[in-house]
Amino acid sequence: MTSMITAARTVTWPATATVLTVGVEEEFLLLDPATGANLPVADQVMAALPESLHRRSRREMRRSMIELVTGVCTGMRDVRAQLSAQRRATADIAEAAGARLVAVAATPVAEPDVGVPCEQRYQHLAEKYGPVAHDPAACGLHVHVGVPDRELAVQVCNHLQVWLPVIRALTSNSPLFLGADTGHASWRSVQLLRWPSIGPTPYFASARDYGRTVADLISSEMVLDEASIYWYARLSPTYPTVEIRVGDVCADVDDTVLVTALVRAAVATAITDIRAGLPASRPRDCVLDAANWRSARDGLSGDLIDLRLGRARPAWELVDEFFATVSPALLETGDLELVLDGLNRLRDIGDGATRQRAILHATGDIRTVLAALAAWTQGG
Description:
Blueprint: H1 4-10, E1 22-31, H2 42-48, H3 51-54, E2 57-59, E3 65-69, H4 76-96, E4 100-102, H5 120-129, E5 140-146, H6 150-160, H7 164-171, E6 176-177, E7 180-181, H8 187-191, E8 198-199, H9 207-220, E9 230-231, E10 233-235, E11 241-248, H10 253-275, H11 285-298, E12 303-306, E13 311-314, H12 315-333, H13 336-349, H14 352-363, H15 366-378
Parallel strand pairs: 8-9
Antiparallel strand pairs: 1-3, 1-4, 1-5, 2-3, 5-11, 6-7, 10-11, 12-13
């Protein structure tokens, strides 16, 4: 891995941008169809992927996980087409390897293999973090949005802060963990807090301030490098993008496209506000932590904390205000109706966590939940 300084030099930030480009990374579990336990067959699945998809796939620290990455997209139609194609192709290959590809964000039944892969980076993480590096798999959604320059990207992260708990709630898809209902909509979010570099993004005055903080964290040896700083919104160490990492992997492509469109619109709205001289809200750290915890617990089914006011409000009130805030940007990209339809669908059927619980309560069988998730993953 490159150091922070090298990464900053190798990332080329475009001078101008008209339409903000997007790219999407989705992490998936490979599950045993009979037991629901995680299956460590990621290497087999990756080896069988078509070359074009193999180049954009990544193995993770758990051998039961695989990450699929789109190319750079300018519109949601392209995002949908790429997500659908790579989910279906990988699901077929996983089936041939005796596994199901499932878009679920926490380990629902068991992780029999918690061994660390032999790659040097993973070995270093295991040495540094001990048992945390052997935790069961957790799968996220990472949305990259191209931003014209690094200085602006840092300010965008500041402005996004108040809406990230809402984005997490929209993606909530991990109520089950090791065979039990956790009482949380996003158990993944709770589990990952065991890692020291995961959490809300600090406020930064400038790109210089951001870079200095990253360098200080690396010097402290709390992290290996810039790539192992997992703030909910960060400057990608690889691409000239703002990367939003707060979300669970979504159960189906419709949800992923909805969230991707909203994230791009939120970034575009932040850029407009920054250029108009509007300051970012700066909630207290403790309230920020509370807001992120509340969204992980309740998802869309309860209250969320409005970080502009510092108090709890019904989740859907905040979702509606988020939509209203980013609507001009959605209108400009032609995504307004897509997002409106997507939000109305979520209002009707619930987030991924709600859908999982409905099946579990109706059948009492976690394997039925996982079969439904596998079907949703492929578009069923």
